[in-house]
């Protein structure tokens, strides 16, 4: 199994790192060898303290998830949450996952709020999941999840004349161990629609998977995540850059420790 240091991120072609405060101590990210950090918190209770974000922003470009339907970040309602973020923190505008929204928040219209948020923020990233056409219409950096169709989708955008920025998010596992890959991102890949439909009912989605389930997952983790040796991932990220992806955002699926020098 590969042992990694922070410098490996650059060697693998990773431009930015996504941080989940529920899983890692985000303050440790000051030691990562990347220029951009995207704080991907899950629910308002997990927004890092302002001083933590400021400390990160002193060493990297920091972007913070901004769910436009959530209280505190609703540009057409309660937007008090913006006041708690450092002025130099960028934004990743998203519709917001229903699991982290109240019923009232989830019922709010996305389109007018996303348009208003784009108008009110400087150089935002716009999460495209589930709202691809709307995200493209409002502008900003298109922030997509890596999938089996990413290469085709990006080529189509570029061929059609889209000259805006494109960022792609992907779970990252730098390891030569297939079991380690499956334990880290098998469940994530299994939640993607095509994979979920292809898996046998009740099959394990980690290293315990066997037979057809393992065959499906082995391909799925390569479609929806960046996995393998540094060289293997570097080849994949180079292809993505070559077709028009500007920023590749890796989510360290096994935590930050392997990347800290």
TrEMBL record:
The record's Gene3D superfamilies line, in alphabetical order, gives:
Luciferase-like domain (3.20.20.30)
**Coiled coil where?**
none
What name is this protein filed under? Luciferase
- Gene Ontology MF terms in the entry: oxidoreductase activity, acting on paired donors, with incorporation or reduction of molecular oxygen
Q: Please tell me the species this chain comes from.
A: Haloarcula marismortui ATCC 33800
Pfam families, alphabetized: DUF7388
- Taxonomic lineage per UniProt? Archaea, Methanobacteriati, Methanobacteriota, Stenosarchaea group, Halobacteria
């Amino acid at each position: 199994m590969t042992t990694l240091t922070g410098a490996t991120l650059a060697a693998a072609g990773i431009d930015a790192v996504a941080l989940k405060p529920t899983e890692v101590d985000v303050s440790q990210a000051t030691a990562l060898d990347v220029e951009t950090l995207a704080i991907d918190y899950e629910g308002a209770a997990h927004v890092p303290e302002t001083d933590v974000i400021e400390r990160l922003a002193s060493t990297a470009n920091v972007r913070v998830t901004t769910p436009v339907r959530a209280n505190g970040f609703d540009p057409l309602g309660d937007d008090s949450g913006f006041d708690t973020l450092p002025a130099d923190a960028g934004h990743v505008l998203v519709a917001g996952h229903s699991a982290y929204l109240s019923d009232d928040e989830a019922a709010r219209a996305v389109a007018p709020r996303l348009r208003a948020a784009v108008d009110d923020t400087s150089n935002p990233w716009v999460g495209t999941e589930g709202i691809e056409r709307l995200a493209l219409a409002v502008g900003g950096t298109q922030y997509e999840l890596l999938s089996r169709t990413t290469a085709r989708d990006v080529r189509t955008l570029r061929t059609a004349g889209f000259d805006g920025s494109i960022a792609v998010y992907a779970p990252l596992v730098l390891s030569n161990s297939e079991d380690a890959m499956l334990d880290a991102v098998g469940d994530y890949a299994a939640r993607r629609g095509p994979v979920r439909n292809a898996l046998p009912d009740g099959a394990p989605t980690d290293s315990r998977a066997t037979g057809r389930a393992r065959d499906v997952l082995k391909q799925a983790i390569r479609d929806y995540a960046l996995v393998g040796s540094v060289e293997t991932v570097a080849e994949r990220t180079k292809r993505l850059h070559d077709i028009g992806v500007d920023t590749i955002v890796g989510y360290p699926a096994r935590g930050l420790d392997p990347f800290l020098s």
